[in-house]
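Action item from last meeting closed. Structure (52 res):
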């Protein structure tokens, strides 16, 4: 059986949105975008069939 891994980003105070659902503070630069692309490259989802 495979592991289920959850990755979640939140601020230190536990909130992501500001008043009126504002997320204008959120900036993803090229370095962070590349990091997540590299990290998620090997992540799969769904059923995996194996033969014995």
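Sequence:
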């Amino acid at each position: 059986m495979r592991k289920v891994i959850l990755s979640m980003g939140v601020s230190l105070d536990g909130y992501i949105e500001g008043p009126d659902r504002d997320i204008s503070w959120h900036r993803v630069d090229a370095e962070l975008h590349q990091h997540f692309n590299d990290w998620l490259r090997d992540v799969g989802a769904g059923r995996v069939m194996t033969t014995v």
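Note appended to the action item: The CA atoms of residues 34 and 40 lie 10 Å apart.
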